[in-house]
Amino acid sequence: MAASPEIETLIENGKAGDTQAFAALMRHYQGYAQALALRLLADHEEAREATQDSFVRVWEHLPRFDGRAAFTTWLYTIVTNVCIDRLRARKRRRVVFVPLTEDAATYSSDPGALQDGARLLAELPSLLHRLSEAQRVVFTLRDMQDLSVDEVRAITGMSATVIKTHLCNARRAMRAALRARFGKEF
Amino acid sequence: MRCSTARRLLLLHRPGERTAWQDRRLARHLRVCVACATEARHIRDELEKSTLALRDATMVLADEALLASVLSQLAPRPDLRGASSARHSAQQAFRPSLLPRLVPAAATVLIVLAFLGQSLSVLARYAELGGSGSAVQERVVVELRYALLPRSLRGEAQVSEPNAALVLSDEHAALTDRDLSRDDAQRVWRLALRSMVPDMEESRIRHLITQYSIIPRLAILTSEEGA
Fold this sequence. Notes:
The complex is a heterodimer.
Chain A (H helix, E strand, L loop, with lengths): L4 H11 L3 H23 L2 H18 L9 H23 L23 H12 L4 H12 L4 H8 L3 H23 L4
Chain B lengths: L2 H9 L8 H13 L1 H24 L6 H10 L9 H11 L5 H30 L12 E10 L3 H4 L6 E6 L12 H15 L5 H10 E8 L8
Antiparallel strand pairs in B: 1-2, 1-3
Helix pairs in contact in B: 1-2, 1-3, 2-3
Protein backbone atom coordinates (compact mmCIF):
# COMPACT_ATOMS: atom_id res chain seq x y z
CA MET A 1 0.00 0.00 0.00
CA ALA A 2 1.57 3.28 -1.13
CA ALA A 3 1.75 6.05 1.44
CA SER A 4 -0.04 9.31 0.76
CA PRO A 5 2.07 12.34 -0.33
CA GLU A 6 1.63 13.84 3.15
CA ILE A 7 3.00 10.71 4.79
CA GLU A 8 5.87 10.57 2.31
CA THR A 9 6.77 14.13 3.21
CA LEU A 10 6.70 13.28 6.91
CA ILE A 11 8.96 10.29 6.27
CA GLU A 12 11.43 12.39 4.29
CA ASN A 13 11.48 15.10 6.95
CA GLY A 14 11.82 12.49 9.68
CA LYS A 15 14.79 11.02 7.84
CA ALA A 16 16.34 14.46 7.83
CA GLY A 17 16.06 14.67 11.62
CA ASP A 18 12.83 16.64 11.99
CA THR A 19 11.30 15.40 15.25
CA GLN A 20 8.05 17.28 14.67
CA ALA A 21 7.54 15.38 11.42
CA PHE A 22 8.40 12.17 13.20
CA ALA A 23 5.87 12.97 15.94
CA ALA A 24 3.19 13.46 13.29
CA LEU A 25 4.20 10.16 11.69
CA MET A 26 3.94 8.40 15.04
CA ARG A 27 0.58 9.97 15.72
CA HIS A 28 -0.66 8.56 12.43
CA TYR A 29 0.62 5.00 12.95
CA GLN A 30 0.67 4.59 16.71
CA GLY A 31 -2.77 3.00 16.94
CA TYR A 32 -1.89 0.36 14.32
CA ALA A 33 1.49 -0.34 15.87
CA GLN A 34 0.21 -0.60 19.41
CA ALA A 35 -2.73 -2.78 18.37
CA LEU A 36 -0.30 -5.14 16.66
CA ALA A 37 1.85 -5.26 19.80
CA LEU A 38 -1.20 -5.84 21.99
CA ARG A 39 -2.40 -8.63 19.73
CA LEU A 40 0.98 -10.31 19.79
CA LEU A 41 1.76 -9.85 23.46
CA ALA A 42 -1.75 -9.87 24.95
CA ASP A 43 -0.64 -7.46 27.65
CA HIS A 44 -1.49 -3.78 27.61
CA GLU A 45 1.52 -2.51 29.52
CA GLU A 46 4.00 -4.65 27.63
CA ALA A 47 2.39 -3.66 24.33
CA ARG A 48 2.87 -0.03 25.28
CA GLU A 49 6.53 -0.58 26.07
CA ALA A 50 7.03 -2.55 22.86
CA THR A 51 5.44 0.26 20.88
CA GLN A 52 7.78 2.78 22.46
CA ASP A 53 10.81 0.60 21.73
CA SER A 54 9.62 0.12 18.17
CA PHE A 55 9.26 3.82 17.48
CA VAL A 56 12.66 4.51 18.93
CA ARG A 57 14.06 1.89 16.56
CA VAL A 58 12.10 3.41 13.69
CA TRP A 59 13.69 6.76 14.46
CA GLU A 60 17.16 5.22 14.57
CA HIS A 61 16.78 3.33 11.31
CA LEU A 62 14.59 5.76 9.39
CA PRO A 63 17.49 7.24 7.41
CA ARG A 64 18.05 3.77 5.96
CA PHE A 65 14.41 3.28 4.96
CA ASP A 66 14.64 3.24 1.18
CA GLY A 67 10.96 2.99 0.29
CA ARG A 68 11.30 -0.32 -1.53
CA ALA A 69 8.75 -1.81 0.87
CA ALA A 70 5.70 0.11 2.05
CA PHE A 71 6.32 2.11 5.21
CA THR A 72 3.63 0.13 7.04
CA THR A 73 5.31 -3.15 6.11
CA TRP A 74 8.62 -1.81 7.38
CA LEU A 75 7.04 -0.50 10.57
CA TYR A 76 5.17 -3.76 11.20
CA THR A 77 8.39 -5.69 10.69
CA ILE A 78 10.04 -3.66 13.43
CA VAL A 79 7.08 -3.98 15.81
CA THR A 80 6.84 -7.72 15.14
CA ASN A 81 10.55 -8.23 15.80
CA VAL A 82 10.40 -6.22 19.02
CA CYS A 83 7.42 -8.28 20.16
CA ILE A 84 9.08 -11.58 19.21
CA ASP A 85 12.11 -10.57 21.28
CA ARG A 86 9.80 -9.89 24.19
CA LEU A 87 7.93 -13.17 23.76
CA ARG A 88 11.23 -15.05 23.80
CA ALA A 89 12.51 -13.16 26.81
CA ARG A 90 9.20 -13.79 28.53
CA LYS A 91 9.50 -17.51 27.85
CA ARG A 92 12.92 -17.55 29.42
CA ARG A 93 12.48 -15.25 32.36
CA ARG A 94 9.03 -14.14 33.19
CA VAL A 95 7.20 -15.90 35.95
CA VAL A 96 3.71 -16.65 34.79
CA PHE A 97 1.31 -18.95 36.50
CA VAL A 98 -0.61 -20.87 33.90
CA PRO A 99 -2.86 -23.74 34.88
CA LEU A 100 -1.68 -27.03 33.46
CA THR A 101 -5.22 -28.13 32.76
CA GLU A 102 -7.93 -25.98 31.32
CA ASP A 103 -11.08 -26.17 33.35
CA ALA A 104 -13.71 -25.60 30.71
CA ALA A 105 -16.45 -26.03 33.28
CA THR A 106 -15.57 -22.69 34.87
CA TYR A 107 -16.60 -20.86 31.72
CA SER A 108 -20.24 -20.36 31.01
CA SER A 109 -21.60 -21.19 27.62
CA ASP A 110 -22.89 -17.77 26.78
CA PRO A 111 -23.54 -17.13 23.08
CA GLY A 112 -23.26 -13.36 23.50
CA ALA A 113 -20.05 -13.46 25.49
CA LEU A 114 -17.85 -13.09 22.45
CA GLN A 115 -19.24 -9.61 21.95
CA ASP A 116 -18.06 -8.65 25.43
CA GLY A 117 -14.83 -6.93 24.43
CA ALA A 118 -13.47 -6.66 27.97
CA ARG A 119 -13.99 -10.34 28.62
CA LEU A 120 -12.53 -11.31 25.28
CA LEU A 121 -9.49 -9.15 25.97
CA ALA A 122 -9.10 -10.79 29.36
CA GLU A 123 -9.20 -14.19 27.67
CA LEU A 124 -6.71 -13.22 24.98
CA PRO A 125 -3.54 -14.34 26.79
CA SER A 126 -4.85 -17.83 27.37
CA LEU A 127 -6.21 -18.03 23.82
CA LEU A 128 -2.90 -16.97 22.29
CA HIS A 129 -1.01 -19.19 24.69
CA ARG A 130 -2.20 -22.15 22.64
CA LEU A 131 -0.37 -20.91 19.57
CA SER A 132 3.29 -21.32 18.81
CA GLU A 133 5.30 -18.16 18.24
CA ALA A 134 5.11 -18.51 14.45
CA GLN A 135 1.39 -19.27 14.53
CA ARG A 136 0.77 -16.29 16.77
CA VAL A 137 2.68 -13.95 14.47
CA VAL A 138 1.03 -15.19 11.29
CA PHE A 139 -2.46 -15.26 12.79
CA THR A 140 -2.06 -11.76 14.19
CA LEU A 141 -0.71 -10.23 11.01
CA ARG A 142 -3.15 -11.94 8.67
CA ASP A 143 -6.38 -12.11 10.64
CA MET A 144 -6.13 -9.38 13.21
CA GLN A 145 -4.13 -6.80 11.27
CA ASP A 146 -5.87 -7.83 8.05
CA LEU A 147 -2.68 -7.95 5.98
CA SER A 148 -2.40 -9.90 2.76
CA VAL A 149 -0.41 -13.13 2.56
CA ASP A 150 2.19 -11.23 0.51
CA GLU A 151 2.54 -8.59 3.22
CA VAL A 152 2.86 -11.29 5.88
CA ARG A 153 5.54 -12.88 3.73
CA ALA A 154 7.42 -9.60 3.45
CA ILE A 155 7.30 -9.06 7.22
CA THR A 156 8.11 -12.57 8.40
CA GLY A 157 10.27 -13.84 5.56
CA MET A 158 8.26 -17.08 5.55
CA SER A 159 7.10 -18.70 2.32
CA ALA A 160 3.42 -18.54 1.40
CA THR A 161 3.10 -22.28 1.98
CA VAL A 162 4.53 -22.04 5.48
CA ILE A 163 2.30 -19.07 6.23
CA LYS A 164 -0.79 -20.98 5.15
CA THR A 165 0.21 -23.98 7.24
CA HIS A 166 0.62 -21.78 10.32
CA LEU A 167 -2.63 -19.99 9.56
CA CYS A 168 -4.49 -23.24 9.25
CA ASN A 169 -3.16 -24.58 12.54
CA ALA A 170 -3.66 -21.27 14.33
CA ARG A 171 -7.27 -20.90 13.21
CA ARG A 172 -8.03 -24.48 14.20
CA ALA A 173 -6.52 -23.90 17.64
CA MET A 174 -8.27 -20.55 18.12
CA ARG A 175 -11.60 -22.00 17.09
CA ALA A 176 -11.21 -24.86 19.54
CA ALA A 177 -10.17 -22.46 22.30
CA LEU A 178 -13.07 -20.10 21.64
CA ARG A 179 -15.50 -22.99 21.64
CA ALA A 180 -14.10 -24.18 24.95
CA ARG A 181 -14.42 -20.68 26.41
CA PHE A 182 -17.65 -19.44 24.95
CA GLY A 183 -19.55 -22.59 24.08
CA LYS A 184 -20.23 -24.25 20.77
CA GLU A 185 -22.42 -21.49 19.42
CA PHE A 186 -20.13 -18.59 20.25
CA MET B 1 -10.61 -35.45 -1.69
CA ARG B 2 -10.61 -36.74 1.87
CA CYS B 3 -12.70 -35.05 4.53
CA SER B 4 -9.54 -34.23 6.53
CA THR B 5 -8.09 -32.38 3.53
CA ALA B 6 -11.37 -30.57 3.00
CA ARG B 7 -11.48 -29.49 6.65
CA ARG B 8 -7.94 -28.15 6.39
CA LEU B 9 -8.78 -26.19 3.25
CA LEU B 10 -11.93 -24.85 4.86
CA LEU B 11 -9.75 -23.17 7.45
CA LEU B 12 -8.08 -21.21 4.65
CA HIS B 13 -11.32 -19.34 4.10
CA ARG B 14 -10.18 -15.84 3.23
CA PRO B 15 -9.73 -14.62 -0.35
CA GLY B 16 -6.46 -15.59 -1.97
CA GLU B 17 -5.58 -18.33 0.50
CA ARG B 18 -6.65 -21.26 -1.67
CA THR B 19 -5.57 -21.85 -5.22
CA ALA B 20 -8.19 -22.10 -7.97
CA TRP B 21 -7.42 -25.79 -8.21
CA GLN B 22 -8.01 -26.27 -4.48
CA ASP B 23 -11.25 -24.29 -4.73
CA ARG B 24 -12.53 -26.55 -7.50
CA ARG B 25 -11.66 -29.75 -5.66
CA LEU B 26 -13.17 -28.47 -2.44
CA ALA B 27 -16.38 -27.39 -4.15
CA ARG B 28 -16.67 -30.83 -5.73
CA HIS B 29 -16.21 -32.46 -2.32
CA LEU B 30 -18.74 -30.22 -0.61
CA ARG B 31 -21.37 -31.13 -3.18
CA VAL B 32 -21.21 -34.76 -2.14
CA CYS B 33 -20.31 -34.54 1.58
CA VAL B 34 -23.09 -33.17 3.78
CA ALA B 35 -20.96 -33.19 6.94
CA CYS B 36 -18.20 -31.10 5.39
CA ALA B 37 -20.73 -28.76 3.78
CA THR B 38 -22.27 -28.12 7.21
CA GLU B 39 -18.82 -27.68 8.74
CA ALA B 40 -17.94 -25.21 5.98
CA ARG B 41 -20.74 -22.89 7.07
CA HIS B 42 -19.83 -23.16 10.75
CA ILE B 43 -16.13 -22.59 10.20
CA ARG B 44 -16.61 -19.52 8.10
CA ASP B 45 -19.18 -18.00 10.47
CA GLU B 46 -17.20 -18.72 13.60
CA LEU B 47 -13.85 -17.57 12.28
CA GLU B 48 -15.23 -14.37 10.81
CA LYS B 49 -17.20 -13.57 13.94
CA SER B 50 -14.30 -14.29 16.28
CA THR B 51 -11.79 -12.39 14.15
CA LEU B 52 -13.98 -9.30 14.12
CA ALA B 53 -14.58 -9.56 17.87
CA LEU B 54 -10.86 -9.96 18.57
CA ARG B 55 -10.02 -6.99 16.34
CA ASP B 56 -12.59 -4.83 18.10
CA ALA B 57 -11.42 -5.88 21.55
CA THR B 58 -7.83 -4.97 20.77
CA MET B 59 -8.29 -1.64 19.02
CA VAL B 60 -5.94 0.99 20.41
CA LEU B 61 -6.39 4.73 20.19
CA ALA B 62 -3.57 7.21 19.82
CA ASP B 63 -1.94 7.94 23.14
CA GLU B 64 -0.26 11.33 23.51
CA ALA B 65 1.59 10.27 26.66
CA LEU B 66 3.24 7.44 24.76
CA LEU B 67 4.21 9.78 21.93
CA ALA B 68 5.73 12.22 24.38
CA SER B 69 7.66 9.41 26.03
CA VAL B 70 9.06 8.26 22.69
CA LEU B 71 10.03 11.79 21.71
CA SER B 72 11.94 12.19 24.95
CA GLN B 73 13.96 9.06 24.13
CA LEU B 74 14.97 10.00 20.61
CA ALA B 75 18.66 10.43 20.09
CA PRO B 76 19.28 13.75 18.37
CA ARG B 77 20.11 13.51 14.73
CA PRO B 78 21.51 16.45 12.81
CA ASP B 79 18.78 18.07 10.79
CA LEU B 80 20.21 17.69 7.31
CA ARG B 81 18.03 20.46 5.97
CA GLY B 82 19.68 22.98 8.28
CA ALA B 83 23.15 21.57 8.67
CA SER B 84 24.89 24.93 9.06
CA SER B 85 22.60 26.12 11.85
CA ALA B 86 22.98 22.76 13.61
CA ARG B 87 26.77 23.14 13.51
CA HIS B 88 26.44 26.63 14.94
CA SER B 89 24.28 25.35 17.81
CA ALA B 90 26.78 22.61 18.57
CA GLN B 91 29.59 25.17 18.85
CA GLN B 92 27.46 27.28 21.19
CA ALA B 93 26.77 24.29 23.40
CA PHE B 94 30.44 23.82 24.25
CA ARG B 95 31.32 27.39 25.13
CA PRO B 96 33.56 27.48 28.23
CA SER B 97 30.88 29.36 30.20
CA LEU B 98 28.68 26.26 30.06
CA LEU B 99 31.31 23.94 31.46
CA PRO B 100 30.64 24.69 35.18
CA ARG B 101 27.09 23.42 34.72
CA LEU B 102 28.43 20.13 33.41
CA VAL B 103 30.58 19.47 36.48
CA PRO B 104 27.75 18.43 38.85
CA ALA B 105 26.28 16.26 36.14
CA ALA B 106 29.61 14.55 35.54
CA ALA B 107 30.05 14.00 39.29
CA THR B 108 26.59 12.41 39.47
CA VAL B 109 27.44 10.11 36.60
CA LEU B 110 30.64 9.02 38.34
CA ILE B 111 28.80 8.30 41.58
CA VAL B 112 26.19 6.28 39.76
CA LEU B 113 28.86 4.35 37.90
CA ALA B 114 30.69 3.60 41.16
CA PHE B 115 27.45 2.39 42.69
CA LEU B 116 26.69 0.21 39.70
CA GLY B 117 30.19 -1.19 39.79
CA GLN B 118 29.30 -3.44 42.71
CA SER B 119 26.38 -4.96 40.88
CA LEU B 120 28.21 -5.17 37.60
CA SER B 121 31.09 -7.07 39.14
CA VAL B 122 28.62 -9.64 40.40
CA LEU B 123 26.95 -9.90 37.04
CA ALA B 124 30.32 -10.20 35.37
CA ARG B 125 31.09 -13.18 37.56
CA TYR B 126 27.78 -14.68 36.62
CA ALA B 127 28.58 -14.15 32.94
CA GLU B 128 31.95 -15.77 33.55
CA LEU B 129 30.07 -18.98 34.24
CA GLY B 130 28.71 -18.97 30.73
CA GLY B 131 25.23 -18.76 32.17
CA SER B 132 22.28 -18.27 29.94
CA GLY B 133 18.67 -19.31 30.01
CA SER B 134 18.53 -19.88 26.29
CA ALA B 135 19.10 -23.60 26.54
CA VAL B 136 15.69 -24.21 28.03
CA GLN B 137 13.53 -26.20 25.67
CA GLU B 138 11.21 -28.11 27.96
CA ARG B 139 7.54 -27.39 28.14
CA VAL B 140 7.59 -27.09 31.91
CA VAL B 141 10.29 -25.05 33.54
CA VAL B 142 11.15 -23.86 36.99
CA GLU B 143 12.63 -20.43 37.25
CA LEU B 144 15.07 -19.92 40.08
CA ARG B 145 16.37 -16.50 40.96
CA TYR B 146 19.53 -15.97 42.89
CA ALA B 147 21.79 -13.27 44.09
CA LEU B 148 25.31 -14.46 43.46
CA LEU B 149 27.74 -12.61 45.66
CA PRO B 150 31.31 -12.96 46.85
CA ARG B 151 31.39 -14.16 50.44
CA SER B 152 33.01 -10.91 51.54
CA LEU B 153 29.80 -9.06 50.65
CA ARG B 154 27.50 -11.63 52.24
CA GLY B 155 26.53 -9.37 55.14
CA GLU B 156 25.46 -6.53 52.89
CA ALA B 157 23.63 -8.90 50.65
CA GLN B 158 20.95 -9.86 53.12
CA VAL B 159 18.62 -7.15 51.95
CA SER B 160 19.56 -7.01 48.31
CA GLU B 161 17.40 -8.24 45.51
CA PRO B 162 18.65 -11.05 43.31
CA ASN B 163 20.68 -9.70 40.46
CA ALA B 164 21.45 -12.87 38.59
CA ALA B 165 18.86 -15.26 37.26
CA LEU B 166 19.25 -18.87 36.32
CA VAL B 167 16.70 -20.88 34.45
CA LEU B 168 16.74 -24.62 34.86
CA SER B 169 15.04 -27.39 33.06
CA ASP B 170 12.75 -28.89 35.60
CA GLU B 171 14.05 -32.21 36.71
CA HIS B 172 13.56 -31.20 40.30
CA ALA B 173 10.14 -29.69 40.57
CA ALA B 174 9.90 -31.21 44.03
CA LEU B 175 11.78 -28.16 45.25
CA THR B 176 8.68 -26.08 45.46
CA ASP B 177 8.00 -22.63 46.79
CA ARG B 178 9.41 -22.99 50.24
CA ASP B 179 12.50 -21.50 51.73
CA LEU B 180 15.50 -23.48 50.75
CA SER B 181 17.95 -24.67 53.33
CA ARG B 182 21.57 -23.87 52.72
CA ASP B 183 22.18 -27.47 51.63
CA ASP B 184 19.24 -27.37 49.25
CA ALA B 185 20.47 -24.08 47.87
CA GLN B 186 23.92 -25.47 47.23
CA ARG B 187 22.41 -28.54 45.63
CA VAL B 188 20.27 -26.42 43.32
CA TRP B 189 23.21 -24.17 42.60
CA ARG B 190 25.23 -27.21 41.58
CA LEU B 191 22.40 -28.34 39.32
CA ALA B 192 22.23 -24.88 37.83
CA LEU B 193 25.89 -24.93 36.95
CA ARG B 194 25.58 -28.41 35.50
CA SER B 195 22.56 -27.31 33.50
CA MET B 196 24.32 -24.27 32.07
CA VAL B 197 27.72 -25.79 31.51
CA PRO B 198 27.33 -29.57 31.36
CA ASP B 199 31.03 -30.30 31.06
CA MET B 200 32.17 -28.01 33.86
CA GLU B 201 34.76 -29.70 36.01
CA GLU B 202 33.82 -30.67 39.53
CA SER B 203 36.76 -28.71 40.95
CA ARG B 204 35.49 -25.56 39.21
CA ILE B 205 32.01 -26.09 40.59
CA ARG B 206 33.40 -26.57 44.09
CA HIS B 207 35.47 -23.42 43.68
CA LEU B 208 32.48 -21.35 42.65
CA ILE B 209 30.31 -22.69 45.42
CA THR B 210 33.07 -21.98 47.91
CA GLN B 211 33.87 -18.51 46.71
CA TYR B 212 30.40 -17.17 46.24
CA SER B 213 27.35 -17.10 48.37
CA ILE B 214 24.00 -17.47 46.82
CA ILE B 215 20.80 -16.08 48.12
CA PRO B 216 18.03 -18.14 46.66
CA ARG B 217 14.66 -16.87 45.64
CA LEU B 218 12.45 -19.47 44.10
CA ALA B 219 9.40 -19.14 41.92
CA ILE B 220 7.64 -21.95 40.20
CA LEU B 221 6.88 -21.48 36.56
CA THR B 222 4.65 -23.96 34.85
CA SER B 223 4.60 -22.79 31.31
CA GLU B 224 3.30 -24.55 28.27
CA GLU B 225 5.84 -23.11 25.89
CA GLY B 226 5.14 -22.86 22.19
CA ALA B 227 7.05 -25.05 19.75
